[in-house]
Write a structure and sequence with these properties.
By secondary structure, the protein is mostly helical. About 75% of the residues lie in helices and about 0% in strands. The protein starts with 10 loop residues before the first helix and ends with a helix. The relative contact order is 0.15.
Length: about 300
């Protein structure tokens, strides 16, 4: 058993959890679910994602097809997939290039991670909101309502998938035996994600610059090195610590404690992303500019050129 002090949040985690508790109070998940309950499921979308992913190649190919399907229909859920499908393709190439200590585990990790996203998307599309993490409910609902900017759509998806899903994907695939080697590969994926998030930020700047909106620095700031409440690197460290706690502490302690940590941080971060500190006037002008162009398409093209 690990020492109980390992369960004590770091100073950064404690600060972020406190912020998450405050911001989670702003989220009315029941009201969000009720607003969307009568929407009809998209059978063609479900046909793409209803079956579990079978391999890294299957994840790569079906995520790309799902992104294209949503983007062609103007569905803003495509924005996160623009980033995520590129991440998957990059990790797939790195596995093929023998960049990982344990390529078999890394492949299983990638599939388990994608499965968490797939299940969330299917649950949302089938209106099974009770089984949907609140961070994903917020992200998908905001995209469905069309009330967010492309930058927010990207951040909401990244937050839900990394801050929430990653803890459970690591548990699904297991972090032992040879935990040290698996940690090395987890950190190698960190490096890939860091580069891709920087690419996403550059692509967002380009997409907004194309419509002559310059005041986006504060909106895009969380994409830099401090994603939402914790930061990209620290969010992945948070997920690893959670996976260690769930593996090493008694289940009756670990499950409730880790679930609370993960839910609080991911939901609070989503609330932060929904209320960016850019001012009402700038936010309104950004929305007006996005309404005049295909901002999601411009973001996709900017990402494609950079990768």
């Amino acid at each position: 058993m690990i020492p109980i002090r390992a369960a004590v949040p770091t100073a950064e985690e404690a600060s972020s959890l406190l912020a998450g508790v405050r911001r989670t109070a702003d989220v009315d998940a029941r009201a969000i679910a009720a607003e969307l309950a009568d929407d009809e499921p998209d059978d063609d979308l479900l046909a793409l994602v209803s079956t579990p992913f079978a391999s890294v190649a299957d994840v790569d190919e079906r995520l790309a097809r799902t992104e294209s399907y949503l983007r062609e229909r103007g569905d803003r859920r495509s924005v996160f997939l623009t980033v995520y499908s590129r991440m998957t393709a990059t990790v797939r190439a790195a596995i093929a290039d023998a960049a990982f200590v344990d390529p078999e585990w890394t492949a299983s990790y990638l599939v388990a991670f994608a499965e968490r996203y797939r299940r969330a998307l299917v649950a949302f599309e089938r209106r099974e909101f009770e089984s949907l993490p609140r961070a994903w409910l917020i992200a998908f609902a905001a995209a469905a309502r069309g009330e967010t900017l492309v930058a927010q759509d990207a951040l909401l998806g990244i937050n839900a998938h990394i801050t929430y899903d990653l803890t459970y994907a690591l548990e699904d695939v297991g972090i032992g035996p040879d935990r040290g080697a698996k940690r090395e590969d987890h950190d190698r994926i960190n490096a890939i994600l860091t580069r891709l998030v920087q690419t996403a930020q550059d692509a967002l700047v380009e997409a907004y610059g194309a419509v002559a909106i310059a005041e986006v620095d504060r909106l895009l700031d969380p994409l830099d090195d401090r994603l939402a409440l914790l930061g990209l690197k620290t969010s992945r460290e948070f997920a690893w610590r959670n996976a260690v706690l769930r593996a090493d502490l008694p289940a009756w302690i670990a499950e409730r404690y880790v679930d609370w940590r993960t839910e609080t941080l991911a939901t609070g971060a989503a609330a932060v992303v929904l209320a960016p500190d850019v001012g009402a006037e700038t936010n309104a002008r950004l929305r007006e500019s996005e309404a005049e162009v295909d901002a999601a398409g411009a973001f996709h093209e900017a990402i494609r050129r950079r990768t």
